[in-house]
Amino acid sequence: MPRYILYQRDDCHLCDQAIDLLARARLPEPESVFIDDDPALEARYGQRVPVLRLADSGIELDWPFDLAALQSHLR
């Protein structure tokens, strides 16, 4: 099971920014879940994407999250 799940949309510049931030934080590559074709995920995450879910704790970070927020939740 991946440590991180990134809920995102196709052609989402904010999602691209989130992926860049995760790379700068040197986190393992997250599992990408695209919500576009899933009505349940669309209802849950539609206005919030990108959302990073920490699989171990279930914590979800809505965009905009930053390096400090990531580090505080990863301790």
**Helix percentage:** 25-40%
Radius of gyration: 12 Å
Return the string of H and E elements: EHEHEEH
Shape: globular
Query: How many individual domains?
Result: 1
Spatial order of the strands forming the largest sheet: 2-1-3-4
Q: Which structural class is indicated by helix and strand composition?
A: alpha+beta
Largest sheet: 4 strands, mixed
CATH-scheme architecture: 3-Layer(aba) Sandwich
Mean pLDDT: 92
- CATH names the topology as Glutaredoxin
Unreliable parts = none
Q: Give the tally of β-strands.
A: 4
Total helical elements: 3
The named CATH superfamily: Glutaredoxin
- Distance, first to last CA: 19 Å
Percent of residues in β-strands = 15-25%
Pfam families: Glrx-like
Protein name: Glutaredoxin family protein
InterPro entries: Glutaredoxin-like, Thioredoxin-like_sf
Give the tags.
75 residues, 35% helix, Glutaredoxin, 4 strands
Textual characterization of the structure:
With 75 residues, this protein is α+β, with helices and mostly antiparallel strands. The protein has a single domain, classed as Glutaredoxin, CATH 3.40.30.10. Helix content is 35%, strand content 21%. It has three helices and four strands; from the N terminus they run βαβαββα. Strands 2-1-3-4 form a four-stranded mixed β-sheet, with no helix packed on it. Strand 3 and strand 4 form a beta hairpin. The model has no long low-confidence stretch (mean pLDDT 92). InterPro entries: Glutaredoxin-like, Thioredoxin-like_sf. It comes from Luteimonas viscosa. It holds the Pfam family Glrx-like.
